[in-house]
């Protein structure tokens, strides 16, 4: 509590008694206590009807930069006080952003014309109103979406109620593992000279353009009411740096997100549908089983003549799928060897413009590599078979 009192005094410039009173009214919640203080301060600093005549004689706060002798903040507060007097019989707060009977969708001519009968709207008209808090400082103003804060608090409360209740002994470690409270957002300080249209809309008693929304809660589109709560904390400057310093210990105590695991490049080996099975990967990819390159870096088949086919002996036809080339059909005797088939394959590759390099032949499914070049086609199970070629 002592730390909250100290932070409250530093942020608002108030005394310890005010800080303790606001914190007690907010159950020790510093953020709610600050919001309550700003709301109360804004209401208390609005001039009363008895002081209206003396107000002009008093020294006004510094004029807005670039606004000449007109203090737009004082004009906004005077308008709020004037509307508060007119709506004294209503239950609304001093100024709720509706102006003198103007609506969100009013045209420019309607905004300039005085209201004929400023009647207090019924509670139904204020249904689903957007609540905004505007605090005036010496160096600018801040805008906070109170509706968003209330909705976030309601969701957090609902989630806490719906969470499964834990039973058993709770130790210090268990309490530390609870989800941390969300960090409050620091409102952005807006400069008066950069937001002239915003200030002029407040002076006219109409909601600024950024607050204008359509309300579909009733099923019929209509301009959403806007309740704007004003607070005047001049001549104090916006304590942005003090808020950041106050939040630094909380930010340091928040658990850091878990580091993403480093992405490791794939270091394995891929296999095509016609590739050799995993058990034969080590032999099929080795240079000792690859064929094709002969002495001097030429095709091995260049060292021998193509096999001759004996028409009187049993024959077989093999279909060979060449990588990067069209399929080939070869007719050989069943007594020919795998080396004879390799000779025909190499000649077909050379005719397709392929240079000498290692390759393997495989057949069946899963593909089985032909490693014995001396075996006959019949012994190797290649009668009328389909053979696949791939580069080593």
TrEMBL record:
Gene Ontology terms describing biological process: autophagosome assembly; Golgi organization; membrane fusion; nuclear membrane reassembly; proteasome-mediated ubiquitin-dependent protein catabolic process
Xref: InterPro entries: Ubiquitin-like_domsf, UBX_dom
PANTHER family: NSFL1 COFACTOR P47 (PTHR23333:SF20), UBX DOMAIN CONTAINING PROTEIN (PTHR23333)
Stretches with biased composition (Low complexity): 274-292
Domain UBX per the UniProt entry, residue ranges: 311-390
Biased composition (Acidic residues): 50-59
Protein name: UBX domain-containing protein
GO CC, alphabetical: cytosol; nucleus
């Amino acid at each position: 509590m002592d730390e909250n009192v100290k932070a409250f005094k530093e942020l608002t410039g108030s005394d310890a008694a005010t800080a303790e009173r606001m914190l007690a009214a907010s159950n020790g919640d510093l953020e709610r206590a600050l919001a309550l203080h700003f709301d109360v301060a804004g209401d208390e600093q609005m001039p009363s009807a008895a002081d209206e005549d003396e107000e002009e004689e008093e020294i006004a706060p510094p004029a807005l930069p670039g606004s000449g002798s007109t203090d737009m903040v004082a004009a906004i507060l005077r308008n709020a006080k004037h509307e508060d007097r007119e709506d004294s019989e209503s239950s609304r707060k001093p100024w709720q952003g509706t102006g003198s009977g103007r609506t969100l969708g009013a045209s420019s001519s309607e905004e300039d014309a005085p209201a004929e009968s400023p009647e207090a709207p019924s509670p139904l008209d204020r249904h689903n109103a957007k609540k905004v808090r505007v605090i005036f400082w010496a160096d600018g103003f801040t805008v906070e979406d109170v509706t968003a804060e209330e909705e976030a608090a309601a969701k957090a409360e609902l989630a806490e109620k719906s969470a499964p209740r834990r039973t058993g002994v709770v130790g210090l470690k268990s309490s530390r593992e609870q989800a941390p409270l969300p960090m409050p957002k620091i409102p952005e300080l807006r400069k008066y000279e950069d937001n002239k249209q915003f200030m002029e809309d407040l002076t006219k008693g109409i909601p600024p353009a950024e607050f204008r929304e359509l309300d579909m809660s009733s099923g019929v589109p209509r301009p959403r009411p806007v309740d704007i709560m004003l607070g005047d904390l001049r001549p104090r400057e916006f304590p942005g740096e003090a808020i950041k310093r106050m939040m630094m210990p909380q930010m340091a105590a928040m658990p850091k997100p878990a580091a993403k695991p480093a992405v490791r490049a794939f270091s394995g080996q891929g296999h095509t549908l016609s590739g050799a099975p995993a058990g034969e990967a080590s032999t099929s990819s080795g240079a000792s089983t690859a064929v094709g390159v002969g002495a001097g870096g030429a095709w091995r088949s260049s060292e021998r003549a193509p096999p001759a086919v004996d028409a009187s002996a049993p024959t077989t036809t093999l279909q060979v799928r060449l990588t990067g080339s069209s399929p080939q059909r070869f007719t050989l005797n069943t007594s020919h060897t795998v080396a004879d088939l390799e000779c025909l394959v190499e000649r077909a590759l050379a005719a397709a413009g392929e240079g000498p390099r290692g390759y393997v032949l495989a057949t069946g499914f899963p593909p089985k590599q032909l490693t014995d070049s001396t075996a006959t086609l019949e012994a190797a199970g290649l009668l009328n078979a389909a053979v696949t070629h791939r580069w080593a």
